[in-house]
């Protein structure tokens, strides 16, 4: 009984993130028929919009799962891209999924910086005697 109770505490936590897509509403968007107002009325506000080029609205949704004390992993991912022409009419509605997700593994190396390396004690005690020293601004007559 104790093992069953302990195992239930380690079950995965499922979280919906972003836009929750309804397949019926998504299939209702028709190129050449709908415009920006009808898409906004059907799907709501987009997750984000394109900043350059052709106007495109993106509806992004993800379902993640995680176990306690572990980073979450993406289980499902969907992006609906609705493109509009200059008149605001729907040109295309394209759906993509997990196949376009890119996992980045950052390099653990440090970025080199200009200057010299200072140790812990030099950082801690480096300014002793520097405040009010001659030739270092402040503290002199006529300032």
Automatic annotation (TrEMBL):
Record protein name field: Outer membrane protein assembly factor BamE
Annotated gene: bamE
Keywords: Cell outer membrane, Membrane, Signal
Record's signal peptide: none
UniProt superkingdom: Bacteria
Pfam families: BamE (PF04355)
Regions crossing the membrane: none
Native organism: Pelagerythrobacter marinus
Domain Outer membrane protein assembly factor BamE as annotated: residue spans: 18-91
